[in-house]
Design a protein that fits this description.
Blueprint lengths: L19 H11 L3 H24 L7 H13 L3 H21 L5 H26 L4 H6 L4
Length: 146
């Protein structure tokens, strides 16, 4: 049986690239205009790259770097198949890591490591507040700005 002879009931449902809400917005905005599609592609590329770069900078600066990178990939996935594939693979790996971390045999270790990280962060924040108070003067002084 060829692809054309397949009954409609056996067809796979359409899975739009990127988030569904963004794909629906794209279809609504661009309609049948080639110029609007080009403008959308340029905007999506620019915004997606800026978001990804912002996320990469947050890997060394304070902030949710990986989450922002994934958001940028989601924007790029609306236009590029490579970004959609990368997003799917990354999402699968993240879900696998989360499942592995919370598996019964690893659950205690995950909780202990989380508690240790929490206590270290709490100790560092406590030291900073004790030393400098609730200001940024200490941190700015580390960089010669304060």
């Amino acid at each position: 049986m060829t692809q054309q002879e397949k009954p409609a009931a056996e067809e796979e449902p359409f899975d739009p690239p990127g988030p569904d809400w963004l794909y629906r917005l794209k279809v609504r905005v661009t309609r049948n205009s080639a110029l609007k599609r080009l403008i959308w592609r340029v905007l999506a590329t620019t915004i997606g790259v800026v978001i990804v770069l912002f996320g990469v900078s947050m890997l060394v600066l304070p902030g949710p770097g990986w989450a922002v990178i994934f958001l940028g990939l989601a924007v790029l996935a609306t236009e590029y198949a490579w970004a959609n594939r990368l997003l799917v693979v990354t999402k699968d790996k993240a879900q696998g890591a989360a499942s592995s971390a919370w598996a019964p045999e690893n659950r205690k270790r995950t909780i202990v490591l989380g508690l240790i990280v929490f206590l270290v962060v709490a100790a560092l924040v406590s030291w900073y507040v004790y030393e400098y108070g609730w200001t940024l003067s200490g941190a700015l002084g580390w960089f010669g700005l304060g």
